[in-house]
Amino acid sequence: MFKKSQKLYEQGLVNLVGAVNSPVRAFSSVGGNPLFIKKAKGSKITDVDGNEYIDLVLSYGPMIIGHRHKQVQRAVVKALKNGYSFGASTENEIILAKIVCDAFPEMDKVRFVNSGTEAVISGVRLARAFTGKDKIIKFAGCYHGHQDSLLVAAGSGLATLSLPGSKGVPEGAVKNTLIAEYNNLESVKKHFDEHNDIAGVIIEPICGNMGVVIPQKSFLKELKDYLETKNALLIADEVMTGFRSKFGGAQELLGVTADITCLGKVIGGGFPVGAYGARNEIMEEVAPLGGMYQAGTLSGNPIAMAGGISTLTELQNQDPYKKFNIIGNTIETILLEAAKKYSVDLVVNRFGSMMNPFFTNSQVTNFKEAQTSDIKKFAVFFWEMIKNGVFLPPSQFEAWFLSSALTVRDIKKLAIAVDKAMMAVSEM
Ligand SMILES: *Cc1c(COP(=O)(O)O)cnc(C)c1O
Predict the structure, then answer these.
(1) Mean pLDDT of the chain
(2) Which domains does the chain have, with CATH numbers?
(3) Which of 98, 173, 178, 376 is the most exposed place for a label (fewest CB within 10 A)?
(4) Ligand 1 neighbourhood includes 264 CB (under 6 angstroms)
(5) Above 70 in pLDDT, residue 200?
(6) CA 124, CA 189: separation in Å to the nearest integer?
């Protein structure tokens, strides 16, 4: 079934590290070797051996309207014909900036970069520039890209590989990083009691990087209110949730406004785009208006901008958020009923089009609880799903994503796969 993937994997090992360009693509925690993909269309993805899968990875989020949507393809091809990169401004940057600032009312201005990692690096720098303070609080289990200062207690990728942090990060780089516990405001307050130089708190407003973990009722609102009393900024890392939880991200959904918002993934529709934005007063710190330097040769790349504009425009027209809730709820029910049928311990966390089944019997509201999951069970489940035509992220701690291209037939096929996979887990 995987002969060609197997062969490419072996070839890939020679000049690529582990044959992958991002460790989350390795199959370290589920065993076996990574699949090599040939193409994708709509809700489906096809590997080099010709196996077709319902895609719940969606490039880890970006492909929210499915693969190769007609409008997007047309816009990108049109942009290609005008040139690939100019090192000068283009009208499309203004158009995408307006779409983004309209979606996030707290953003007056936005700066485009090339990845989520870059967006967060810059957002954190901006918080420091604006407040004149150095320390940043992050939550255990939240992932904010691979920059040195936030690569501690950083969730899925590291958890999957059982790494506490990253080698090569000097102590000095994390000395201004403080760790708090998700859904626990007291753990934030404690840091403020002990330090008077905290610039802000960075958070995934709905966490997708320790598996999906949802903020409890008023956690975000209370956090934001508290930060205001401390003159510290709330940095919303909406790289995953932006345009996914709602068009205006988790903030629109939860009724909380951050001071600085970081975006990625969906914003480029599969092309490398990240962004950070804030109200004028804050963005005026950024060069050329202010003294915070941040730059990029390919930032605002015309092809990527065309991908972003067409994806977001189509997404806005489709407004699939209600549909996501319905499909998400259906899949959740399918999972829970199969678990019950085969007496497998399972907790499903879901928020709109992001979801995770955890193989555990305890609730999962933070990183510690997520880690009670049985990853051996997940590995068995994962491979049965693959064999039955459903492409999942190869880790217990990565979110599953839904696209608006999913069909009723896909869901039926998925239900059959889940039944078989859950049976396999119960027979371990
Ligand atoms: C994916 C992700 C990032 C990093 O984005 P890249 O484009 O992979 O650099 C940062 N923060 C969150 C919340 C993410 O999900």
Answers:
(1) 95
(2) 3-64+320-426 (3.90.1150.10), 70-317 (3.40.640.10)
(3) 98
(4) yes
(5) yes
(6) 20
Q: Which helix (H) or strand (E) holds 112?
A: strand 109-113
Closest CA to 84 of 311, 312, 306, 310: 306
- Whether the CB of 309 sits within 6 Å of ligand 1: no
Q: Distance, CA 174 to ligand 1 centroid (Å)?
A: 19
Ligand 1 atom closest to the Cα of residue 264 is 7
**What's the pLDDT score for residue 38?**
98
CA distance 145 to 132: 23
Ligand 1 pocket: which of 115, 117, 244 to mutate (most atoms <8 Å of CB)? Answer: 117
Output the six-digit token pair for 142. 């939240």
Going by pLDDT thresholds of 50, 70 and 90, the confidence category of residue 163 is: low
Q: pLDDT of 71-118, one tens digit each?
A: 999 999 999 999 999 999 999 999 999 999 999 999 999 999 999 999
pLDDT on residue 170? 83
Ligand 1, residues 25, 113, 120: which to mutate, most atoms within 8 A of Cβ? 120
Q: Mean pLDDT throughout 391-407?
A: 96
Sign of CA dihedral 275, 276, 277, 281: negative
Which of 135, 265, 276, 374 is an active site residue? 265
**What is the pTM for the complete model shown?**
0.95
By DSSP bridging, strand 274-278 and strand 109-113 are antiparallel
Nearest atom in ligand 1 to 265's CA:
7
Nearest residue to 224 (alpha-carbon basis) of 211, 237, 233, 214? 233
Q: Tell me, yes or no, if 319 is annotated catalytic.
A: no
Mutate to test the pocket of ligand 1, among 22, 118, 143 (most ligand atoms within 8 A of CB): 143
The closest residue, in CA terms, to atom 5 on ligand 1 is: 116
* Pair type for strands 347-351 and 354-358: antiparallel
The tens digit of pLDDT for each residue in 256-308 reads: 999 999 999 999 999 999 999 999 999 999 999 999 999 999 999 999 999 99
Residue 94 belongs to what H/E stretch?
helix 91-103
| CA of residue 240 to ligand 1 center, whole Å | 7
